[in-house]
Structure formats: C-alpha cells, structure tokens
C-alpha cells in the first residue's frame, strides 16, 4: 500500500470516528429536547397551586415554594447574574462582529468560517426560544420585579439559557481555534466557571422558581449538543477535503539523485 493510500485510509477512519461522535451528540440533543418537552407538561400538570404573586399558579408548587423560601431574594446574586448576562451579550456581539468582518473581507457568506456561521445559528435559535416563551407563558416569576406591576414570564430561565449556551459554545470554540494549547485550556476553564456561576447565581438570587432553572439547563443542553454535532461534522469535512487535496498533490515516488 502506497503512502498516499495509507494517508487517505487514515483520514477515512478519522472521519468515521468524528461522524460517530457527531451522531451521539445529535442523539443527546434529541434526548434533552424530549426531556424538556416532557418537563413542560409536568410543570403544567403536577402539584399546581396558586403560590405565586397575585395568586399565579405554579407547577411542582411544594418543591418550588420550599426552595424559594430557602433562598429568598438576594440583591447581590441578582446583580451578579445580571452582570454575567451582559457579558454573555458582549460575547454574542463579538462573534457577530467577527462574522460580519469575514463576510465583508471575504466577499460572500460561503467564505465565512463555518464555525462562526454555526455559532450565529445557535444564537439565533436561542433568541427564537426566548421570544417564544415570552409569548407562551409556562410559569410566572416568584416575585414582582422592581418597576413592574405584574409578574413576568419566568420559564425557562432566559439568563440560565443564555449563560449555558454562550459560555458553553465558547468552550467548544476555544478548542476549535486554539487546539490543545495552554491558551485554549485557560479559556475553556474560564468559560466553564462563568457558565457555572451564571446558573448558580440565577438559581439562588430568588427571581426564578427551581423548575425554571432546570428547564433552562435542559433546553441549553439540547441546543449545545446539536451545535457540537454540527461543528464536528463541518470541521471533519473540511479537514478531509483539505487532506485529500494535499495527498493528491504529493508525488507517488521521489527520485533520489
């Protein structure tokens, strides 16, 4: 077997492994979405009682009520969660700027880095779900926010969803652009910490029910899993195509003088 054939065979095996990994991510995403939909049904039907402000009804009222009584409202945690939300928006703006720069410089959306396109698609779907659950109300907040006269929609927690999706995708993107380097590890650890703090701060600040946080985590898990599968396939396809061209350009034999 020639060197060219061995190189092509190695790339085909690597492609199969990456495709299998992507398929597992798609299955995980589907499972998270199914669990999210089932959880919505449970929240609307199990142990529903008017324990919210202005006697708004809440599912899993015993658990939600007990947890809210335990945490109460914390201004410090609320401000921290709000600050992380602003940071997440800035990260979204940064990648939007990178995509726009590539679009203008490379003169065509087909020339924009596919990881950037996939990330933009992820953020767009996240926004779509945010708008959807502002209109389709599953639960209302356990408190009436300052400046409001009525409780607002709270399921799933939009800050939890945004924190998980934005910082979770940043973990994947760091590996894509920096590889197995110290820079990538530092960025991934930092993004992981921000993700955890975003969830915890929203959990204990007292402006959401416990089930709102769980819903946000399940939905973000579904979105991130599908995103991970998509970028894995795109990256592997690009690598396979590039490697194939490199191998085809190499001479079959090298003559020694």
Short description:
By secondary structure, this protein is an all-alpha fold. It has helices at 3-45, 61-71, 75-106, 114-135, 158-178, 182-204, 210-249.
Description:
The chain is 75% helix and 0% strand. It has 257 residues and is an all-alpha fold. The chain has one domain. The longest helix is centred in the N-terminal third of the chain and has 43 residues, at 3-45.
Which helices and strands appear, and what pairs or packs with what?
Layout: H1 3-45, H2 61-71, H3 75-106, H4 114-135, H5 158-178, H6 182-204, H7 210-249
Helix pairs in contact: 1-7, 3-4, 3-5, 3-6, 4-5, 4-7, 5-6, 5-7
- Number of alpha- plus pi-helical segments: 7
The portion of residues forming beta strands comes to: under 5%
SSE ordering: HHHHHHH
Shape: elongated
Low-confidence stretches: 244-257
- C-alpha-based Rg, rounded: 23 Å
Mean pLDDT: 85
- Tell me the number of strands: 0
Query: Based on helices, strands and strand pairing, what is the structural class?
Result: mainly alpha
Query: End-to-end span in angstroms?
Result: 24 Å
Sheet with most strands: none
Q: Please estimate the helix content.
A: over 70%
Number of domains: 1
Attribute tags:
257 residues, mainly alpha
């Amino acid at each position: 077997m020639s060197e060219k054939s061995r190189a092509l065979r190695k790339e085909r095996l690597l492609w199969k492994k990456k495709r299998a990994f992507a398929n597992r991510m798609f299955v995980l995403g589907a499972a998270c979405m199914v669990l999210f939909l089932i959880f919505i049904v449970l929240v609307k039907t199990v142990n529903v009682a008017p324990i919210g402000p202005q006697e708004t009804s809440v599912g899993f009222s015993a658990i939600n009520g007990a947890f809210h009584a335990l945490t109460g409202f914390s201004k410090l945690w609320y401000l921290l969660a709000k600050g992380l939300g602003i940071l997440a928006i800035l990260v979204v703006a940064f990648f939007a700027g990178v995509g726009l720069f590539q679009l203008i410089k490379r003169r065509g959306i087909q020339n924009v880095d596919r990881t950037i396109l996939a990330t933009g698609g992820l953020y767009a779907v996240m926004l779509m779900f945010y708008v959807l659950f502002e209109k389709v109300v599953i639960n209302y907040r356990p408190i009436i926010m300052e400046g409001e006269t009525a409780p607002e929609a709270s399921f799933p927690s939009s800050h939890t969803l945004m924190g998980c999706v934005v910082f979770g995708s940043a973990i994947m993107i760091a590996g894509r652009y920096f590889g197995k380097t110290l820079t990538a590890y530092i960025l991934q650890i930092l993004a992981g910490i921000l993700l955890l703090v975003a969830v915890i701060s929203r959990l204990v600040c007292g402006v959401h029910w416990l089930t709102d946080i769980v819903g946000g985590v399940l939905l973000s898990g579904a979105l991130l899993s599908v995103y991970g599968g998509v970028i894995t396939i795109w990256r592997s396809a690009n690598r396979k195509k590039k490697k194939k061209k490199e191998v085809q350009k190499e001479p079959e034999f090298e003559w020694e003088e």
